[in-house]
Structure to design on (319 residues):
């Protein structure tokens, strides 16, 4: 993997976009960019609930790749926004397969960061025959210990000033279980209650996602729909253990994908998804190429992480 700083590929617009009905409730937005006859790669966004953005198209060489992006249930341009019904990890895995079949793709490279890495690994374990390679960033195995670190105690000791803002919507007598306290407010019948909780939850994550805080990334969550979809869906998944049968489901099933070419890219100072999870994934899957980025936090757009991801995608062009 290259060590020099790589810039994003140029901005590019979709050549195809549409909606795919996946249930009586949900319609998913999807788009294709790059080379219509190129090698298929699917981008899985984070959150869950984060949605895709224009820069997500730019990790991939548009002359080589047919780049597929979509908004997961309740996120981005998918409808209905922030909907929790029929919204589980297994619904999303099924949606990825439906999209692959709709687009008449046999196998594809799967790219995902943060929650996208959780979903990419889960999809690959469930459908290994459909995955050419996995490119993963900011590894999140969605285990109770990881949720506790970021939303209860751990990251709070690194960002105590920002943590106080996260605590504000929650009375002291409920702070022993902050995820449960937030969940109660994020599903509250009063929109103002939901929105106050959604903004505090989302801004905590945005403020801690980079080595150097980006105020613009925090301010994005002033948008009510974005904050509500992000916070409600995340908290819904975390309250339900990401709908996994066991606390360590991904590592317990990693043997099913060890034959698949893999790339693991992890920021050394990632506070949202600490490097411990990436290291444990690396030990369980030593065949995958493993890269610690010395000067990055959690965000995919940080220079070192961006460079490593673009280089990994370039390496996969030969598959």
């Amino acid at each position: 993997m290259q060590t020099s700083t790589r810039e994003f590929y140029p901005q590019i617009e979709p050549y195809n976009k549409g909606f795919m009905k996946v249930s009586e409730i949900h319609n998913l937005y999807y788009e294709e960019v790059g080379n219509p006859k190129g090698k298929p790669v699917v981008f899985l966004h984070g959150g869950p609930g984060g949605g895709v953005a224009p820069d997500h198209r730019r990790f991939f060489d548009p002359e080589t790749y047919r780049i597929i992006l979509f908004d997961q249930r309740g996120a981005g341009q998918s409808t209905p926004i922030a909907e929790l019904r029929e919204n589980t990890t297994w619904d999303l895995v099924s949606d990825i397969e439906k999209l692959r079949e709709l687009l008449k793709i046999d196998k594809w490279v799967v790219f995902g960061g943060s929650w996208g890495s959780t979903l990419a690994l889960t999809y690959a374990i469930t459908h290994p025959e459909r995955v050419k390679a996995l490119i993963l960033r900011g590894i999140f195995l969605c285990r109770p210990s990881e949720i506790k670190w970021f939303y209860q105690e751990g990251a709070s000791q690194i960002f105590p000033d920002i943590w106080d803002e996260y605590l504000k919507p929650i009375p002291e007598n409920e702070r022993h279980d902050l995820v449960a306290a937030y969940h109660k407010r994020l599903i509250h019948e009063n929109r103002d209650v939901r929105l106050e909780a959604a903004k505090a939850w989302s801004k905590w994550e945005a403020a801690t996602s980079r080595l150097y805080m980006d105020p613009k990334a925090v301010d994005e969550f002033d948008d009510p729909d974005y904050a509500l979809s992000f916070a409600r869906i995340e908290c819904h998944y975390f309250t339900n253990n990401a709908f996994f049968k066991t606390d360590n489901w991904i590592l317990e099933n990693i043997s099913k994908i060890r034959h698949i070419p893999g790339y693991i890219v992890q920021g050394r100072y990632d506070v949202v998804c600490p490097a411990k999870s990436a290291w444990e994934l690396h030990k369980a899957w030593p065949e995958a190429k493993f890269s610690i980025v010395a000067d990055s936090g959690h965000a995919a757009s940080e220079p070192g992480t961006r460079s490593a991801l673009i280089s990994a995608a370039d390496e996969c062009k030969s598959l």
